[in-house]
Design brief:
heterodimer, A: 459 residues, alpha/beta, Transferase(Phosphotransferase), domain 1, Rossmann fold, 3 domains, four-stranded antiparallel beta sheet, 15 helices, 18% strand, globular, B: 91 residues, mainly alpha, 3 helices
């Protein structure tokens, strides 16, 4: 294996990804020649790229890391930030599933079919899902079943059903089961009433039973015949199943979903003005908004054309943020579910298949607004370690200090002993001063909070 | 609204009883071993997943087929009606 080969790309013998001079290329192996040529010459590639469903690429003349296998080297459009299904909110996973099925339907029109349906084949480009694995297409032979059916159910339908019917937090099972959720586990967790829905009864419950019944019994998929209408029926049935799954926070209406702040309207507007001023001063190339909630401050960056990742631990806030981005046509913001006290780790084979959050940084600028008190007081993280972590993931830092006298901090301390004598503004400035230069600061009107603009030492 | 759901529920139950308890269905399907070649199918499709897919496909494929023919019949009748109407107007 070439050292340049990406650790996430090794399962499919049709080709692999490699990085050279910071650019990601994909090698198309000779064994995939016929399928690749059909994809490119049948009109399928042009149709999918035209509909923004498939990442465009160009064929390039770059030396191959494994030339004896190479048919072509292609350079796909680069995705600036890779995200993973266990970081997506409900509607992002649902849109990714529907995109996969839409592509499968189009592929059938051109005599091709998806050979896999991994959720990791989808990335968010300009805020919308796009298929990134150009080598997933194989020629469709009349009568063959969909070889990726199991994978689709495990990667998409099972987690969506659990999130919809059981608990939104079960999306995190995707980080444990890298090839999608086992269907027997899903079937056991889903409430009994899901047996009354034909799509879930057949694609989850009976599917799980069938898997158990036929475990370890080999079969040649080419010998199992399934007509074109049956094939289309399966895709339509999956599409209908996914479309019918819905989720919204229990006991709330979206319109009432409230941001938990204690600002007066004037203080909130002043905070926005200060943050916007800092952003205009720094003009960062990328922004990570940590604890971005429903994305109000992320939009200050997004509206300035800055690609912005808006992280929050609350799946409901991320869902609201994503739906707002879709409704408002925001293409610069990618909302993601991340718990900063336990950010995504490197997982998969050799812990390298899926990158940790830190590996995907650093960002040019980080917004850490109304965040420090949650980390320091709710999670007992010392200020020095917060500063150290933030200096690892950004160059510029726009951060808000919330003192103990603030009503939000008082609320956090109401149910526990105050063991934080060092949580003071001078200590905050001293600890962050070890990693950052404080370029500017401003007190927010009608509040006790302060905003800082900091720059990492030796940037 | 609820009444409309009953046929679907009954259908689902009949289908599930058919699949769950009819071991003859499984027994009738040949799952003999044979080598999988080529890289075209590099993921494990799963025997149980293929079998259930073929069975569900037979069930929902009928609906897809009816849908297609319903559209064709509808289009045929619409065209026929249009032709007659235009014929009457030209007379």
């Amino acid at each position: 294996m070439s050292s340049a080969q990406l650790p996430a790309s090794f399962r499919d013998p049709s080709g692999f990804l490699f990085r050279r001079d910071g650019v990601i290329y994909r090698q198309v192996n000779l064994v995939y020649k016929d399928d690749y040529d059909h994809l490119m010459s049948s009109g399928l590639y042009q149709t999918l790229v035209g509909d923004n469903l498939l990442i465009p690429h160009e064929e390039v003349n770059v030396a191959s890391p494994i030339p004896e296998l190479a048919y072509k080297i292609i350079k796909p459009e680069q995705i600036p930030f890779i995200s993973y299904p266990y970081e997506w909110c409900f509607s992002q996973l649902k849109d990714a599933a529907l995109t996969t099925l839409k592509i499968q339907k189009k592929a059938l029109d051109f005599g091709m079919s998806l050979r896999d349906s991994s959720a990791y084949n989808i990335q968010f480009r300009n805020g919308r899902p796009v298929f990134i694995d150009t080598l997933s297409f194989g020629k469709y032979h009349e009568g063959q079943p969909w070889v990726a059916y199991r994978q689709f159910c495990q990667h998409f339908l099972a987690p969506l059903a659990l999130m919809s019917y059981k608990d939104i937090r079960l999306s995190q099972l995707l980080s444990i089961h890298i090839d999608g959720l086992p269907l027997d586990l899903t079937s056991g967790l889903l409430p009994w009433r899901t047996h009354l829905r034909f799509s879930l009864l057949s694609h989850i419950h009976l599917h799980a039973r069938s898997q158990k019944h036929f475990a370890d019994r080999p079969i040649d998929v080419r010998e199992r015949r399934m007509g074109r209408y049956a094939f289309l029926g399966i895709i339509n049935s999956l599409e209908s199943a996914v479309r019918k799954l819905r989720w919204q926070p229990r006991g709330t209406e979206w319109a009432d979903y409230y941001r938990d702040t204690n600002y007066s309207p004037q203080a909130f507007e002043h905070k926005k003005t200060i943050v916007a001023g800092f952003l205009d001063r720094v003009r960062p190339a990328t922004v990570w908004d940590l604890g971005g909630n429903v994305g109000i401050f992320s939009r200050l960056a997004g509206d300035r054309g800055i690609p912005t990742i808006s992280f929050d631990v609350d799946p409901a806030a991320v869902e609201r943020n994503y739906l707002d981005c879709i409704a408002g046509g925001d293409t610069n913001i990618l909302p993601l579910v991340i718990d900063l006290t336990n950010p995504s780790a490197g997982i998969g084979w050799e812990n390298k298949e899926r990158m940790s959050l830190k590996e995907r940084g650093p960002a040019d600028a980080v917004l850490a607004l109304a965040l420090v008190h949650h980390l320091a007081i709710s999670n007992n993280v010392p200020l020095s370690r917060i500063a150290g972590f933030l200096s690892d993931i950004c160059r510029w830092l726009i951060i808000e200090f919330v003192p103990k006298t603030d009503s939000q901090v008082r609320r956090l301390l109401a149910t526990r002993e105050d063991i934080f004598p060092d949580y003071t503004r001078p200590a905050f400035e001293q600890e962050f001063g070890r990693y950052f230069t404080i370029e500017d600061s401003a007190d927010i009107r009608e509040s006790q909070r302060t905003l800082y603009l900091m720059c990492r030492h030796g940037r | 609204m609820n009444r409309a759901k009953y046929p679907g529920i009954v259908l689902a139950m009949v289908f599930s009883l058919f699949l769950v308890f009819s071991q003859t269905v499984y027994a009738s399907i040949d799952v003999g071993a044979s080598e999988q070649a080529a890289c075209a199918y590099y993921i494990d499709a799963g025997t149980g997943s293929i079998i259930i897919q073929v069975l569900i496909g037979a069930f929902v494929g009928g609906a897809a087929l009816i849908g297609v023919y319903r559209t064709r019949v509808k289009n045929f009748l619409r065209n026929l009606f249009k032709k007659r109407k235009s014929g009457e107007e030209s007379e």
